[in-house]
């Protein structure tokens, strides 16, 4: 799969944050009941929790997949619609997939992201998140939350989220790093594989890459 190159400053750090905030986990987990947060406040809280966990856990910074998955399950999973993210990344082919194929696509996409970005977490040091004003109407159910990653001696880096309100929760379903949306990038990579071998061809390709431990980044190299 072709890789898109990003500017080098903070690139590895950003990829690690994408790995976590992309919700590298299956399904939708239940979480303790809380009052509905504004979407920008939810991202601000989640970002702070994720950064604190990364900084406090050397195993996560070392790329330990099990510890990363544990952190994702606990912190990120309740705030991400990962099935929607996978469906949008697959595109029109998602409608042709059986229930079993959809489940396999979600699992293989999750593993691809985990393997691609886990090593980037070692770059987390003094970074923080600065939120931008939310440009949305209170009645909106689909919004873009904009933020910047701030690090010592570097320029702020754009990091945005597409979120949709589902019942009484806001869910992330796409992430934009430096102007490149995760879903759009993977859809452009998956399309040719689907055209050549159908949905099963895409699944087989992802399964093969994951079994070999290959990386396939939507957001640049490491």
Summarize this structure as a short list of keywords or feature phrases.
disordered N terminus; 8 helices; 48% helix; alpha+beta; 222 residues; Nuclear Transport Factor 2, Chain: A; five-stranded antiparallel β-sheet; single chain; globular; disordered C terminus; 5 strands
Task: Give a verbal description of the structure.
The chain is α+β, with helices and mostly antiparallel strands. It has one domain (11-27, 36-211): Roll (Nuclear Transport Factor 2, Chain: A). Helices cover 48% and strands 15% of the residues. It has helices at residues 11-21, 39-56, 58-61, 65-76, 82-90, 93-96, 99-117, 182-211, and strands spanning 128-131, 142-150, 157-166, 169-177, 180-181. A five-stranded antiparallel beta sheet has the order 1-2-3-4-5. Strand 3 and strand 4 (169-177) form a beta hairpin. Helix 1 packs antiparallel against helix 7 (99-117) and helix 5 (82-90) packs across helix 7 (99-117). The longest helix is centred in the C-terminal third of the chain and has 30 residues, at 182-211. It starts with 10 loop residues before the first helix and ends in an 11-residue tail after the last helix. Residues 1-10, 22-33 and 218-222 have low confidence and may be disordered.
């Amino acid at each position: 799969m072709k890789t898109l190159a990003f500017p080098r400053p903070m690139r590895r750090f950003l990829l690690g944050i994408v790995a976590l905030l992309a919700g590298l986990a299956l399904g939708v987990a239940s979480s303790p009941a809380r009052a509905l947060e504004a979407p920008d406040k939810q991202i601000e809280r989640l970002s702070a929790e994720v950064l604190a966990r990364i900084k406090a856990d050397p195993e996560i910074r070392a790329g330990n997949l099990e510890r990363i998955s544990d952190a994702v399950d606990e912190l990120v999973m309740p705030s991400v619609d990962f099935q929607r993210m996978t469906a949008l990344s697959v595109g029109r082919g998602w409608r042709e997939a059986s229930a079993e194929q959809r489940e396999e696509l979600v699992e293989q996409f999750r593993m691809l992201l985990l393997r691609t970005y886990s090593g980037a977490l070692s770059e987390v040091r003094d970074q923080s998140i600065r939120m931008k004003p939310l440009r949305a109407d209170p009645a909106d159910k689909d919004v873009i939350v904009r933020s910047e990653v701030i690090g010592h001696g570097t320029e702020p880096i754009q990091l945005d989220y597409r979120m949709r309100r589902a019942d009484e929760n806001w869910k992330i379903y796409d992430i934009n790093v430096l102007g490149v949306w995760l879903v759009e990038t993977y859809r452009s990579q998956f399309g040719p594989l689907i055209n050549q071998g159908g949905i099963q061809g895409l699944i087989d390709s992802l399964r093969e890459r994951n079994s070999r431990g290959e990386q396939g980044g939507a957001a640049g190299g490491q």
